[in-house]
Every structure is written in structure tokens, then in C-alpha cells.
Amino acid sequence: MSVILVTGGSGLVGKAIQYVIETEPEGSRFGKKPGETWVFAGSADGDLRDQAQTKKLFEKYKPTHVIHLAALVGGLFANMKYKLDFLRDNVLINDNVLHTSHLTGVKKVISCLSTCVYPDKVEYPLDETKIHLGLPHDSNFGYAYAKRMVDVSNHAYKDQFGHNFTSAIPTNVFGPHDNYDLESAHVIPGLVHKCYLAKKNGTPFVVGGTGKPLRQFIYSQDLAKLFIWMLRNYDDVEPLILSVDETEEVSIKQVADAIVKAVGFEGEYTFDTARADGQFRKPASNKKLLSLVGDFQFTPFEQALDESVKWFLENYDTARTGKQQ
Ligand code: NAP
Ligand code: GDP
Hints:
Blueprint: E1 2-7, H1 12-23, E2 36-41, H2 51-61, E3 65-68, H3 76-81, H4 83-103, E4 108-112, H5 141-161, E5 164-170, E6 172-174, H6 187-201, E7 205-208, E8 214-215, E9 217-219, H7 220-233, E10 240-242, E11 250-251, H8 252-263, E12 269-272, H9 287-293, H10 301-314
The structure holds NADP nicotinamide-adenine-dinucleotide phosphate and guanosine-5'-diphosphate.
């Protein structure tokens, strides 16, 4: 019998794991296995910045395994504005989750890092050995250092106690249940919302920055399957990059073009070059993942984007859109 607690279970990635677990056939590669109980916890179930509330959550569900996704998460503009919050909230959340897992005898924890935490100046492509090889980009050093410490903690728990605590490193994620707040969102949900409003209000669609930076995107449902695979098959303390191929970088302009098409927007479309571009690129290698996972099909970018836009349009009234306009 195992109890898998997914922290951050109400967010983009948590909801995708819940969807996969509930829709893949029971007993199949990514479906629920007999004897498994899955618990998806959001911040309403306990504020993980608080040690006592974290302990209470663990006492309630008695997890044997934890997929730890809970974090203060945001796009470039939120990371630039709230560096201390990104540092402190995430340091507290991660320390509480890992230490409570240690104290309560959790058998395995997979935490979530990001390719955003890598050094700004490092040889590309990024791989699992390069996380600590230099300073992060100035735009998100709070988030980056908090997340890097998870890898440091995992090694310390392993060396001192022999624990099976590890981490996954996704690239930019998108999909249903994303955060669509106009200012704090990542680029895809932010631009989907902006494009929707431009179409609805007959106003220009304005993309931040030059449109030239490159990113790798992973569909939340693909990422969810990879987390489930990791839970069952990956028992090494070293992190694992969960990403599409490094040749599949997409420019922000290509992203905006695909969003215009998916939303059906026909009005004026411009770039606000006064806004920051952030890191120019951060291509990550999925070589290690592909050497371990076997057969795995990533959803084509445009198909995943169409599905995400469709979800947003159908769920606009309940989606995390921030202020309604
Ligand atoms: P998200 O949609 O913003 O969800 C964040 C989750 O964390 C929510 O369930 C939220 O709960 C929970 N949470 C936040 N603060 C909390 C607190 N103090 N106590 C308890 N729970 C708290 O984020 P996501 O995109 O799914 O991100 C999941 C993980 O992937 C994070 O670790 C993130 O760093 C990582 N990641 C994300 C991306 C990306 O592009 N989105 C890329 C790389 C890595 P409520 O919503 O209930 O408040
Ligand atoms: P990053 O990968 O951590 O930098 O995160 P984002 O998902 O926030 O992507 C940032 C890139 O998208 C930068 O090059 C921004 O200039 C560009 N971008 C363009 N418009 C937007 C927007 O509306 N929101 C966000 N977050 N980024 C935007």
C-alpha cells in the first residue's frame, strides 16, 4: 500500500498529474496501480511555509511517497519584482516538506526544480551536471537559489541518512489550469490571456520584449506522465531534466504567432521592446531522460497549445485570470 502526496496539487502540474492518474487505464504505465492512494493538496490544505501546518498535513495523510510541486511560481516579470518572496517562500516550503518527509519516514521524495535555476553563463546545452556552475540570471536569482538548495538538501539527506530524495528539472511548462494572471503568468498563459482580451475588446495584442528569446516548452500532461514514470523507476539523487529535445527551441515570436492562430485573433500585433527579454536562451538536453525512459511520445507543440487555449476559453470564468477585464 502506498500513499502518494502531491504538494502543489491544485496547480498547473499537479492538476495534470491528477488528470493522467484519473484517466489512464488503471494498472497501465501511467495509470493508478492497485494499492495506491493519491492525494492532491493545495495551499488551502495547509500553508507549507509553516512548519506546524506542514506537519499536520503529513499527519493527516501519512504519505509514503511525495511529489513535491508546491512553490511560489511566476513568470519573468513576477520574478524580477518579488525576489525576496521567491527566495524566502520557496526556501521555507522546501525545507518544511523535505524535513517533515525525513521525520515521518517518507520513502521517496521527488521535488521540482526548473531550467530557470541554471547559471546564466554556462556552456550549452544545459545538463544535470551544470546546476551549480555559476551565478543565475539576475532576473530570478531569488527563485534560482531557493530551488538550487533542494538539490543540495537532497544530497545531504542522502549522505547523512541514505534517503531516496531526488529532483526533476522541467523546462517552461504550459497547459490547462495554468496561472493566466496578466502580470505574474509565464509567457504562454500570459499571452493567451492578452490575445483573448485583444480579440474581445478590439485592442492591439502587445507582446513583451523583442520576441527573439528562445525557450523549450513541455506540455503539462507530458510532464505529468514523466513524473509518474520517475516515481516508479528513478531512484538516484542526481536530478533529471524532463524536456523535449534541445533542437525544439521556439522563439517568443513563434509562440505569439501560434497563439494568434489558436485564439483566432485578426487585429494589430506589436512588441513592447521596453519590456525585459530575460535570459536569451537556456536549451536543455534530454539525453539522460531518453536513455532511461524508453518509448515516450511528446505531444506536438501546436496541438498542445490548441488544447490549452481551448481549455482557457471554455474555463475563462473559473480560470486563474487574476483581475477580470
Ligand atoms: P502553479 O500552477 O502556480 O501551482 C503552484 C502550486 O503550489 C499550487 O498548488 C499552490 O496552491 C501551491 N502553493 C503555493 N504556495 C504554497 C504554500 N505556501 N503552501 C502550500 N502550497 C502552496 O505552479 P506550477 O506551474 O504547477 O509549478 C509546479 C512546480 O513546477 C513548481 O515547483 C515550479 O517551480 C515548477 N516549474 C514550473 C514551471 C512552469 O513553467 N510553470 C517550469 C519549471 C518548473 P494553491 O494554488 O492552492 O494556492
Ligand atoms: P522565463 O523562461 O523564466 O523567462 O519565463 P517566462 O515564461 O515568463 O518567459 C519570458 C519570456 O517571454 C521573455 O523573453 C519575455 O520578454 C517574453 N514575454 C513576452 N510577453 C510576455 C508576457 O506577457 N508574460 C511573460 N511572462 N513573458 C512574456
